[in-house]
Amino acid sequence: MKRKIWLILFLLPMLVLAFPKTSLAQSEAMIQFRLHKLIGTNEQSENIGILNNEQGINGASFAVYDVTNAFYQLREKGFDLEEAQQIIARQGTPAGDFIMEKITRTVDNEEGVAVFDLPEKEQEKDKVYLFVETSEGLPDSDPTQNMVVVLPIYDEKGQKQTTVHLYPKTTQPSSSLVFEKKLAEKVDNFSIGDTIRYSLKLQLPDRLSNEETCVISDHADQELAFLPATLEVLVAGEKMQEFTVHNQENGFSLVFAKDKLASLAGQTVNIKYQMQLKKEAIADQAIYNHAILDIGEDSISQTTHIRTGGKWFQKVASNNEQQPLEGAVFLVKNQNGEYLHLIDGIYHWEKKAKDALTLTSNANGLFSVNGLKDGDYQLEEIKAPAGYVKNQSSISFTVKSMSYAVDGKQSDPLKIGNKKKSQSLFFPKTNEQKAAYFVIGIVIVLGCISLLIKEREKNNETKNEQN
Fold first, then answer.
1. Helix (H/G/I), strand (E/B), else coil: 152
2. What is the DSSP letter of 221?
3. If you write DSSP's letter for every residue of 316-376 in order, what string do you get?
4. Domains of the chain, residue spans
5. Using alpha carbons only, how large is the chain's radius of gyration in Å?
6. Rounded CA gap, 243 and 216, in Å?
7. Fold type of domain 30-170
8. 3-class SS of residue 238
9. Over its length of 467 residues, how does the chain's per-residue pLDDT go in tens digits?
10. Gram-positive pilin subunit D1 N-terminal domain location, by residue (predicted)?
């Protein structure tokens, strides 16, 4: 009996080990995507839905990317779900991290299917995936649009789906509708107070109804201010008046008159306007400007972005870079020798140094300039830290991408050294060299007079002794 008990106890751990363990990865809920590559444009079909009966194409390759972070960052900036999807779809693969690539094949007697098994969540956050076709030159096949899928997906009964069928649409539009947004500048970096030109181009379809609505909404991040007086709407080079404008601090909405819309069929509408970069802008952070066209049942979103630059510095002792110096004060100059001024939230360059913007090193020796366009500049030291000699020469520095921050973290500062003042043997407490020399001169003169007096007294004593 004892032998049987010992045998059971011996085999029990082995039996436990024989059963599969549920790892953390296995316990994560998974969802299956079945992507269908179909013949034809499939423009009228939904991107996501139930199984379709159209013929599929084998041999097409599709890649999937994790765009969860990019999606939620856009949502935090105020974009709704569809806008964020459209932006990421246009950005394509740079918006996320590559996961895997699959080739369509015959699955369950259906051609043109690629199956992806992917996690539903990560750290309690619903996942977002980008599907991109990577195949080229397939017969009877048109390239398809990028697809952004935000989880979870529910069916018509409100039940969460564990298998989702995807039907990517072709990239060829079914109408001549075109909507473009551009930054009408040669550069994409600006200084605080700069005005920035933008343009919108709307190519309207050949057929339009006066029953349709046409609205263009243009909204930028809070670091940009819309300048209403700069708005121009042109058709065939002529200013157009058949619209209503609703202005906001950082954008506008332009509503075309319904009764005039049909007369614009097939024409191109060009919209020009300007925005101004505000002092709230932070260097090396993208500042977005979004435009959305809503016409009939169609909606198109376009986005551009700009940035501003800056530079970090650290004041240190010349003989010890680990020793920060507090209280140094600087002015900023451009290549023309003009000084940077901040007036009513706008940067100006002026010849005078009076009332110019000052930068002061803190207890860690750090200070920075923010809101400058890329280029070469100089610092002029106007006050040295206590006990140190002021730099007589200007300090050159360059503003460029990531000279202020990299991925939201402060860039390495440019270190600026100061020499310690030498202490006078006679006047250790004075900082005025001229005053010291003056006092020393007086002492020398008094000493000489004293010697002359003593010499005269000595001579008089000698004469008296001789007499």
1. coil
2. -
3. EETTEEEEE----EEEEE-TTSPEEEEETTEEEEES--TT--EEE--TTSEEEEEEE-SEE
4. 30-170, 178-307, 308-418
5. 37
6. 10
7. Immunoglobulin-like (2.60.40)
8. strand
9. 444 444 333 444 444 444 444 444 445 789 999 999 987 544 444 556 544 556 788 999 999 999 999 999 989 888 888 888 888 887 888 889 999 999 999 999 999 999 999 999 988 899 999 999 998 766 656 678 889 999 999 988 889 999 999 998 765 444 578 899 999 999 999 999 999 999 999 998 877 766 678 899 999 999 999 999 999 999 988 898 888 999 999 999 999 888 888 888 888 999 999 999 999 999 999 999 999 998 877 788 999 999 999 999 999 999 999 999 999 999 999 999 999 999 999 999 999 999 999 999 999 999 999 999 999 999 999 999 999 999 999 999 999 999 999 988 999 999 999 999 886 544 444 455 566 667 777 878 787 787 778 777 776 666 666 55
10. 50-169
CA distance 253 to 270: 15
Q: Please report, as a single letter, which amino acid is at residue 62.
A: F
Tokens of 175: 């109408």
* Of residues 294, 282, 309, the one with CA closest to residue 222: 282
Q: Which amino acid is at 133?
A: E
Structure-token pair, residue 399: 């503003």
Within 13 A of 307's CA, how many CA atoms are on the CB side? Answer: 14
Taking the C-alpha atoms of residue 102 and residue 35, their distance in angstroms, rounded to an integer, is 10
**The listed CATH number (3.30.2290.10, 2.60.40.10, 2.60.120.260, 3.40.50.720) that belongs to domain 308-418:** 2.60.40.10
Check: CB of residue 275 under 8 Å from CB of residue 337.
no
**At which residue do the structure tokens 């005005």 appear?**
195
Q: Coil, strand or helix: which one is 172?
A: coil
